Amino acid sequence: MDSGIKREGAGTASPDILALKIPELDQKHVHIKDPERVAKIIKQMMDDAHHKLQVVADFDRTLSKYAHAGHVCSTTHGVLEDSDHMPEEFKVKARKLKDTYLPIEFDGTKTIAEKIPQMIEWWTNGHALITNSHLTRDLLRTIVRDSSSHLRDGCTWFFEQLHKHEIPLLIFSAGLGDIITEVVSHQAVLYDNMKIVSNFLDFDETGKVVGFVGDMIHVYNKNEHAVHSSDYFENIKHRENLMLLGDSLGDLRMAEGAEDVVCLLKVGFLNFKVEENLEQYKESYDIVIVQDQSMAVVNSLMTKILGQS
Description:
38% of the residues lie in helices and 17% in strands.
């Protein structure tokens, strides 16, 4: 079997990983740079079960799909950019911004420090377009309902299990929080153990968008947001095991406020530009899942941690 899980440079599946009996990890599209270390983290999480676990997850292309039925899905910003309900002028300008800045975000030759000024420009200009687009709360619900945003296959089960076992889930997104709320509410259930930290729209008394609430969150400043100076992580500091789910290098900083974490398992979804980014993702994430639109690998880990098999 040509396993996706190999000792770096060895070409054989790691016995440490295989001993965990999680077959989903032993697939070609799953990459682990340090199997021994990852196996140790997973084993510790299994021993501690759900009592010490918390989850921090990005939304766009992490909890939501990159592609569905052969078509690229909309991100939360893309839900507006791709909608027939939005003004054509808005869509043209938004796509121009995306064409300009998205290649910079995924440019492996640039450092994060070099990218940050461009990301701030992108989000600032994009949010200004939304504010001036005459969007309303009711129209937003219609746009989300008609959009191509899809939760990953198995996401409903994932949410259910976290709620059932009272495991906190922080959804930390540089996208649009109102759209995340609508997508999760329509396609799954928005449980009380879930907290969404994102860019939320500000509506006036008539339901029209007039701006955004709080500080802007872009892909590379998730460690700077107010959640890290709030009491969120303080209130769950007894949960020493943290599973982090993301799809960009900026997502790795989401959990920096969780200072009491002992075991941190970083799971990354690499959705496109695989050849250009795989090695960098393997250096940054403990487990890298390539071009998979499901939660199968994550759910297999959760099943083991919860002691269900």
